[in-house]
From TrEMBL:
This is peptidylprolyl isomerase. It comes from the Eukaryota. It catalyses: [protein]-peptidylproline (omega=180) = [protein]-peptidylproline (omega=0). Residues 526-557 are annotated as: Disordered. Its main location: endoplasmic reticulum. The keyword Metal-binding applies. GO terms for cellular component: endoplasmic reticulum. Its EC number is 5.2.1.8. The keyword Repressor does not apply. One of its GO terms (molecular function) is peptidyl-prolyl cis-trans isomerase activity. Residues 479-507, 517-552 form the EF-hand domain. InterPro entries: EF-hand-dom_pair, EF_Hand_1_Ca_BS, EF_hand_dom, FKBP-like_isomerase, PPIase_dom_sf, PPIase_FKBP_dom.
Length: 557
């Protein structure tokens, strides 16, 4: 630009100006672009005479001035004075008459041969050859997918004019802007500017007017021919055709079985939005989420996402909104049309039809005698959850566990797993909850938990039929009472009864119900026979168990 003035003599009036006098009294620190010949510009100005009298002002009209610079559409002095300006730059311009309205002036407004003074601020610069300007401000390290046409996006934005004047913000509304891309629902520049973005990416998008609101502007907030600047944060996006996306984070080397429809699964999860915002976590409640899969008890995306999981597997399940909570969202933590990400850790699963799973780890050679219903067994065990969490162990006590099989003293699954074992045999038992502690669990055992037992049979004793405390190996003595009444006084006290029973066992004529406390078994037998509880058994009181059972049958008949 020519900024010179006529050289001044040593004294007196310097004389008329040859060119525009430009005073750049404010220059922004950052100037990305300067107005050049042929550019479209928007600016505000005040126009005065030398004495300060105002003759024109865009401010008074409430509208900026827009036009093309350097092509003769403005007075020559203004054309020259505006070139080279930056957005937000302020200039004082002194325009001599021959570069203004000359010797004619403007009737009623500007007298002939008037020098004009303009105070100008540049607000916008663009060119018809401009393209969208996209600057990536930040981008996630992981970006598996980017926005394409027809995707539905949710994003936050701050919108300003090129001079920084804000005109809109999604943040002030407290919600994202949600729309389809590439379908004409957005201005062309935003349609283009969102393409290729990752969820979590931040961009600055500068849109020239012809890709924004053009000559008409928008309401009172966006003037005609305004360039727009959007600072955009892409929160999430999806396509209506999307299905569930699975990412297998950790799969156990051994996976004997995978979950299918109808299985009951216990799993931990963290649920986040695509921007990482946590909306729910089973870990925070310190309990697994337990449900059937494939039966509509959970959102469709999770029903699909849990199909085929292994026990112990960790997987990421990405669910589009049409397979989650849709346009309405859920509560105050899941917005409408939100993509959900679940990081899932499968603890265990089972099917209500599952039996006990038995794996024989070791079986001694020459195993001819195995455990049966009502046998008394001694065994060691370790009990854990399928994820390895240790629950109980008989090794924590001095003695092995003792139980009569079929006496309802242990869970059904363990009882079944101890049948048909040899002494010395070792097994691994997988017990589903309906054969374990059920939906309610037990002390230290979560509800609906599948249990893993490592069992070793230490010893076993042949049992007696249910309801019996003692059985004869042959026929009982015909004169049983006389033989039991050792001192022949017509009554059998507890010590005589105990001595007689022990003798029968020692001679192999009969056997007691196996127990760790045979004295208690004999005491229970005596109490059963001493029907009037006077401490002595009389001939009328003594009855065999088989005779008692027969009497009951007759009574029922």
């Amino acid at each position: 630009l020519l900024l010179g003035v006529l050289g001044a003599p040593a004294l007196g009036d310097p004389g008329p100006l040859e060119d525009v006098v430009i005073d750049r009294y404010y220059i922004p620190k950052i100037c990305l672009r300067e107005a050049q010949m042929g550019d479209f510009i928007r600016y505000h100005y005040n126009g005065t005479f030398k004495d300060g009298k105002k003759f024109d002002s865009s401010y008074d009209r409430g509208a900026t001035v827009a036009g093309v610079v350097g092509v003769g559409r403005l007075i020559t002095g203004m054309d020259r004075g505006l070139q080279g300006m930056c957005v937000n730059e302020r200039r004082h311009l002194i325009v001599p008459p021959h570069l203004g309205y000359g010797s004619i002036g403007v009737a009623g407004l500007i007298p002939p041969d008037a020098t004009l003074y303009f105070d100008v601020i540049m607000l916008d610069i663009w060119n018809k050859n401009d393209k969208l300007q996209i600057t990536t401000l930040s981008k996630p390290e992981r970006c598996n997918r980017t926005v394409e046409n027809s995707d539905f996006v949710r994003y936050h934005y701050n919108g300003t004019l090129l001079d920084g004047t804000p005109f809109d913000s999604s943040y002030s509304k407290g919600s994202t802007y949600d729309t389809y891309v590439g379908t004409g629902w957005l201005i062309k520049g935003m349609d283009q500017g969102l393409l290729g973005m990752c969820a979590g990416e931040k961009r600055s998008i500068i849109i020239p007017p012809f890709l924004a609101y053009g000559e008409k502007g928008y309401g009172t907030v966006i003037p005609p021919q305004a360039s727009l600047v959007f600072s955009v944060l892409l929160v999430d996006f999806h396509n209506p055709k999307d299905g569930v996306f699975l990412e297998h984070l950790e799969v156990p080397e051994s996976c004997k079985r995978r979950a299918v429809t109808g299985d009951f699964v216990r799993y931990h999860y963290n649920g986040t939005l695509m921007d990482g915002t946590l909306f729910d976590s089973s870990y925070s409640r310190n309990e697994t989420y337990n449900t059937y899969i494939g039966k509509g008890y959970i959102i469709p995306g999770m029903d699909q996402g849990l199909q085929g999981v292994c026990v112990g597997e960790q997987r990421r399940v990405v669910i589009p909104p049409h397979l989650a909570y849709g346009e309405n969202g859920a509560g105050d933590k899941i917005p409408g049309s939100a993509v959900l990400i679940f990081d899932v850790h499968v603890i265990d699963f089972h099917n209500p039809a599952d039996p006990v799973e038995i794996e024989t780890v070791f079986r001694p050679e020459g195993c001819n005698v195995t455990t049966r219903h009502r046998d008394f067994v001694r065994y060691h065990y370790n009990c854990s959850l399928l994820d390895g969490t240790r629950l109980f162990s008989s090794h924590d006590y001095e003695k092995p566990q003792e139980v009569t099989l079929g006496a309802n003293k242990v869970i059904e699954g363990l009882n079944s797993g101890l049948l048909d074992m040899c002494a010395g045999e070792r097994r691994v038992l997988i017990v589903p909850p309906h054969l374990g502690h059920g939906e309610s669990g037990a002390r230290g055992v979560p509800g609906s938990a599948v249990l893993r037992f490592e069992v070793e049979l230490i010893s076993m004793e042949e049992g007696v039929p249910e309801g019996y405390l003692f059985i004869w190996h042959g026929d009982p003595p015909a004169n049983l009472y006389e033989q039991m009444d050792l001192n022949k006084d017509g009554g059998i006290p507890a010590d005589e009864f105990s001595t007689f029973i022990k003798t029968q066992v020692a001679e192999g004529k009969g056997r007691l119900m196996p127990s760790s406390d045979p004295e208690k078994v004999i005491a229970d037998m005596f109490q059963n026979q001493d029907r009037n509880q006077d401490g002595r058994i009389t001939p009328d009181e003594l009855k065999l168990k088989s005779d008692e059972d027969q009497e009951k049958i007759h009574e029922e008949l």
